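Hi P.,

Sorry for the delay on this. The queue was packed all week, but I finally got your sequence through. Input first:
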Amino acid sequence: MLWKGFWSYTHDDDKSEEGRIKQLLERIQAEYEIRTGEKLVVFYDKEDILWGEELKQAIEEELNSVLFFIAIVTPRYLRSTVCRAEFNQVAQRAQELGLGSIILPIHYVDVPELSDENCLDEVAKRVKALKWEDWRELRLEDASSSAHRTGVASLVNRLITLNAVSAETKHETSDGSVARDEEMIAEESGTLDNLEGMESSFIQLTDLAESMSLRITDVGDLMNQATDEIRKIDSKGKGFSGRLAVARKLAQNLADPALEISNAGNAFSSYFYKIDLGLRTLLSLAQEEIADTPASLVKYQEFAEDIKSFIQSTQEAYSGARSMVASIEEIIGISRDLRVPLNRIRNGLIAFLETESFVIKWEELLDESEFLLVR
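Then the structure:
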């Protein structure tokens, strides 16, 4: 079987490393091929349309052809909405299918969140739960050094082991389809499970969105109040000590809403994923039902309009979230006291922004569903 792999990283990291991240991939491919005699197809360029298409197809086909998803974990990676969305989608689907071992994080440079026991970042928590490869020192070694070559060999050992395990659990049947363990099949969601999950997630998501919106408004009000106080302090000539006092007061006031935004942002991903499963299930049922009962077209068109309205409202929310993240980036270094609450708010908003990939897919799905058009 021809296995596919995905190499998830940020282009800025590779640029900072003068191309060494891509070179590491090339050495892994060469080592794998010389030891197995098999070619390893790896998708690595996010700017290539094939990357997105292949990853989407791999997730929809239940990761049967995926040997690995390697994430080059760095501070930039955790701040990239694209990388985070990819990681979360693959991690969630792999967990549901009992294929968590295909995710191989490489701890490439020091990431503070991975050593923080109280870290709330969803991606960082998932990385910590997996067996990562530590390359923080190996990346500094010359590519021809024994330590570097041993590190590459260690990575390939894991891939070869995965290959052997996958060959047992994903064997080909006589008709060419992929057979899986009965236990795994039993654990997969059924049609009614997907629809119930979508229905309940919509309700919970609405409540969560309202709560998050209120907390964001609270944060905006608190920051505006602090700005007004600083203006008054400046007019009285109280200088930096006065500003610092305002920053500390703001940090205390932001503590509770920051925690709520962080928790809400991390919860969004799971709700969107359940809605995604339900929507795909419903559309597949709709096509068959409309063909048998044309009158049912109306209810599905109404449902499609509801989804489109939801998409429009979330797109507006994404715009506001991006603006707030940009504002936080500008002020996060002003005070040490502000860093913790502002980091929590930023991470919560970034986690929310990760769900945009789902919304884009839903829009595409509805546009492609010609059976919903008026006849």
